[in-house]
Write a structure and sequence with these properties.
CATH class of the largest domain: Mainly Beta
Largest sheet: 8 strands, mixed
Distance between the termini: 52 Å
Number of strands: 25
Order of helices and strands: HEHEEEHEHEEEEEEEEEEEEEEEEEEEE
Shape: globular
Number of helices: 4
CATH topology of the largest domain: UDP N-Acetylglucosamine Acyltransferase, domain 1
CATH superfamily of the largest domain: Hexapeptide repeat proteins
Strand content: 25-35%
Number of domains: 2
């Protein structure tokens, strides 16, 4: 019995607003026992109550958790580059990244969802699409047929991706943005809230407006 309990325990890496959303999804899914949260940014929070659990510490606590038999982690941090970097850290410590999918999300049978990815309430992912690891398909976002959302990308609340859209690694598509069919959003790009994207956006660019225009590049 104790082995099964250990196998089901899970820690959320992050202790902010997005972590609250992820915790709710985990609890609704009823697959894991949420043990607590990790927070690297504010070490003084160790031991604090948060979201009906406890902030256990920061990165230094990973080895302790491993010794206690905990094996599952979800990274609940909004920044895509930070998520992909932390994914390598937790794997190096022997943890497994697990996906969290809200029971109200609608996901087609052939869709592939990568490890560590979060699909929030009301999201829709249609046939032929692929979502990579440590991505976020946020509240009420829709990803239409044959899209590809790469590792660490964030599809923010209310976004509409038309068919065949490609969103690159660690890109962020802002709240309520609309992307027309077959457009490519480059790796690390940021699309502003409410933008209407009619053309490909290059890597590491910031684009916003109706229609969206590239405002700057890294």
């Amino acid at each position: 019995m104790s082995e099964n309990r250990s196998d089901n325990r899970l820690v959320i890496y992050g202790a902010g607003g997005h972590a609250k959303v992820v915790a709710d999804i985990v609890r609704r899914g009823n697959r894991f026992e949420l043990l607590g949260f990790l927070d690297d940014q504010r070490p003084e929070r160790r031991g604090d109550a948060f979201c009906a659990a406890t902030v256990l510490g920061g990165r230094e606590h990973l080895d302790v958790l491993r010794q206690q038999g905990v094996r599952q982690v979800i990274i609940a941090i909004g920044d895509g580059r930070a998520r992909t970097t932390l994914a390598e850290v937790v794997r190096a410590h022997g943890f497994r990244l697990v996906a969290a999918i809200h029971p109200s999300a609608i996901i087609a049978e052939d869709v592939v969802i990568g490890d560590g990815t979060v699909v929030a309430a009301g999201a829709v992912v249609n046939p032929g699409s692929r979502v990579g690891e440590n991505a976020i398909i946020n509240t009420c976002a829709s990803v239409d047929h044959d899209c590809a959302v790469d590792d660490g990308a964030h599809i923010c609340p209310g976004v509409r991706l038309a068919g065949g859209v490609r969103v690159g690694r660690a890109a962020c598509v802002g709240i309520g943005a609309v992307i027309i069919p077959n457009v490519r959003i480059g790796a690390g790009a940021v699309i502003g809230a409410g933008a209407v994207v009619l053309h490909d956006i290059p890597d590491n660019a910031v684009a916003y407006g109706v229609p969206a225009k590239v405002q700057k590049r890294a």
